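User: Predict the structure for this protein chain, please.
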Amino acid sequence: MDYSPLDRNLVADQVTAVERAAFIKKTYSHVALAVLSFIVFECIFLSVPALRNIGLQMTQGWTWLLVLGGFALATGAAETWAMRSTDRTQQYIALLLFTAAYAFIFMPMIFIAQKMAGGTLIMQAGVLTLALFTGLSAVVLITGKDFSFLKTGLVVGGFIALGLIVAGIAFGFNLGLWFSVAMIALSAGSILYQTSGLLYRYHTDQYVAAALGLAGSLLMMFWYILRLLMAFSGD
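Assistant: Here is the predicted structure, written as structure tokens:
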């Protein structure tokens, strides 16, 4: 069948839209895979007494700062590896490294939350995080708005947060509830930014890398929501 130039352009646009939709679907399925891997790693780490003890000890003083540095290096390397590698196996290895690093650094807080209220606080934090993540993702995917303008604010906010964390460790003060609220807002902005990247920045073969970016923002939100709930429960 012969198409006019206009018809050919419409068909090309439809193919592009279909490919983009398939990419988004793959990305979210890999976000789910990343979260599932995180849960599996967390269960394994918490079930091994030696690892659990290491996790509880690593929050003491400057050791925690070293752990945070190692965590940043591991997750950064995993995201870069997933983004640049064309080998699918290497991309999945990066995903496992990424989720294992998150599970390890979450271990002390998850353990304490379990001791405080069984799995109640963890479940509540998970439900709230999923609801916010779904709502924020829907805003971007339905409206098609590009939130790339948030990048500068997210970078600046991230450095400010890191500075406050270092200061808190150095001078021994608690960052308090408002810090958790601010970090939840920062992670919400990151989810908006990462989700709009699915529409405008990522190539359609980069769904593993895109999933890691979204999963990182999702897990950061979960961390601070759980931290907030634990603070209220402690009162």
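The mean pLDDT is 80.
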